Give the backbone structure.
Amino acid sequence: MGGVHLLGGNREDRRGRRWSRRRYLAVFLAPSFALIAVFYLLPVILTVLISFTDMDYSFRWNWIGLENYLRMASDPIASKVLGNTLLYVFSTLALFNVGMALLISLVTVHIPERIGKGYRALWLLPRITPSTVYALLWLWAVRQDPTALINWLLSFLGMEPINWLHKYPWPIVIAVNGFVGASFGMIIFTAALKSIPTDYLMAARVDGASTLQVIRHVELPLIKWPLMFVTAYQTLSLLTSYEYILLVTNGGPGYYTTEVWALYSYHLAFAQYGGVVKFGYGAALATVLVILGLIFSIVYWRAFRFRELMVEPKIEV
Amino acid sequence: MAGRHLLIVLMAVLTLPIVLLYAVLFAQSVSEEVVGVIPVNLTLSNWEFLRDGNIKVPGTTGQFYPNVYAVALNTLVLAITVALLELTFSSLAGYAISRYKFRGRGALLALALILHSFPGITLLIALFYVLNVMGLYDTLLGVIIIKVALDMPLDIWIMKGFFDGVSWDMEMSALVDGCSRLQAWWKVVMPNVRNGLMTVLIFGFLSGWSEFIYVLTFISSQDYWTFSMLVYALTTGEYSYINPGVTSAVAILYMVPVIAFFLFAQQYLLRIQITGKGIS
């Protein structure tokens, strides 16, 4: 059993308690882990298994070995989508999820707290707005109409109204996701910056450092780990996200212009207009993401010492 | 200090797009037309659907979208059930993991952590299969179960963190006084993790309330539509820009709980991010 048994008692008692202990553990753990097993763990395994079949709407398990993966390797759409995904992930990450997040945190900790807090709250708004509403706000803003937000603003600079979604689909897609994505890093970075002892900052100030020098030589080096954590975590999030792209461009305009890997998998399985539903091939694409997820969780484990979060309770009743 | 003012202005410029996006939404809901962000001809006619809940499909003679109040009820049922189930299950599991040593404890925690790396939306095909086999396709219950299951690993980690922070002494004295383990958990420990419970509850509610992809994929009959589907329907297709005023009004109605939490429960929303995902 281990642990310190603080309630003694004879052997009879202890056996009774051990039984009730098991019962309690079952009551405490069974509901959540049963759900996780059937509706989370099982789907991960099923995704991999389905990827070796040519399953369609009939749900028949017809094993075809590695055919889906060979097809993936020669599918011109898949390679286009892969390029799109890399463009999407790394630009959004650099510009917003890490770049903008860092900028907001650094600026808002250097201005009066009440104002800084207000700005950070506003940046949280896109994240907690339902995706369908948030996407809608952008769809309205980028319309071709001269009264639409972006065209209206640019008309003051003398620019002609254009259809932003058709002309510049990628900048729009990146901005739509970025304004949501920035808040995650912002919160982590702000918490990390606030936990820097003021002595350090004071010392640098006394030595005559400017704000920029303080940021460069004191603050940035001290938030190195949060920076790496956010980068790793958000890379995976972006790789697997497609909800806002589905809502704003649905992969268009035109031929797979803004289609990303996860969205392609979704389309193969659930939106084959007039075509055959391809659960098997879609699952193969999803399996690639599952494997990436596994690799990333190993990275978190190793690099960010998650094991330390799992220390066992020191006393036990 | 001049530098400080410059920083405040810089933040204002960076944040302006967000403010403008939402300003258009509010302006549109109370006017006939919006030029940029400026409402033209103020009116409340966009809100008339509140009278009987009926919104006509543009371009048709007598077709209506599912009644707004039925949609609101579905969304509420989904959100409240998800929130309460997540609250119950995660506070039970989080407590056991925080307080008991048992074989497989590390494995369960690791499982929760690793699974958290597979966002549910990449597992749609397999989830679709599971729901069909279990006869849960096209039911609200199916969506509820999936939401709870997929949010559970994160919830367990959040609650474990809060239970870890509760001192042993009170619990010990309750047990010595003859409370059972369940009684001690309920009467002594739970009141001390109120912040954690609020966090999971609000997070669960918002996650159920906003859910879109699972409803889109796993619900086919309009009887089970939620707000996300109604807004999606109002904004897709060839008639999407015919009546932005009504669409704005529906979207604002949809955002009421979100805005309420935003104004009154921000500390919990911030905590979600820090305790939950930002384990750094």
Observations:
- Residues 273-280 of chain B have pLDDT under 50 and may be disordered.
- Residues 68-99 of chain B form the longest helix (32 residues).
- The beta strands of chain B are 31-35, 38-42.
- The two ends of chain B are 34 Å apart (CA to CA).
